[in-house]
Amino acid sequence: MSLDINRPDVLAEVTAVFARYEQALVSNDVAVLDELFWNSPHTLRYGVTENLYGYDEIQAFRAGRPAQGLARTVLRTVITTYGADYATANIEFQREGSNRTGRQSQTWLRTPQGWRVVAAHVSLLQPPVA
User: Fold this and answer.
1) What pLDDT band is residue 1 in, cutting at 50, 70 and 90?
2) Which one, of 121, 122, 118, lies nearest residue 37 by Cα?
3) CA distances from 20 to 5, 15, 53, 111, 121 (A)
4) Which one of 19, 52, 67, 85 has the largest count of C-beta atoms within 10 Å of its C-beta?
5) Nearest to 72, CA basis, from 92, 58, 46, 88
6) Is the pLDDT at 46 greater than 70, yes or no?
7) How far apart, in whole angstroms, are the C-alpha atoms of residue 44 and residue 119?
8) 9: Cβ–Cβ under 8 A, 6 or more apart, which residues?
């Protein structure tokens, strides 16, 4: 069985949609964020302080989240595609004014509507010990 990892055409598609997601995240473009999550009760997002099950919970979280303090610097990005329809995107990031490193993992699936996040996880590492 060949997994066909990182086909250039698929990797380019996922890289572009991930960049669109990242821009929407830091600019609090809730409509795009909602669009890019799979509209399904099977979708989940584990955040720093919340566990969200299903598209409706994720959408409600986004609608109520403050729009301040979203700027961040992406320190490292790893996007891997598997075949034509499945991918993972993982980043390390740092929020402006923070010394904590964050991690974000997303599982992407090609759906009839386009690439969508089906699972996501965000966490923060403890600050370095001085």
Assistant:
1) low
2) 118
3) 22, 9, 23, 17, 18
4) 52
5) 92
6) yes
7) 5
8) none
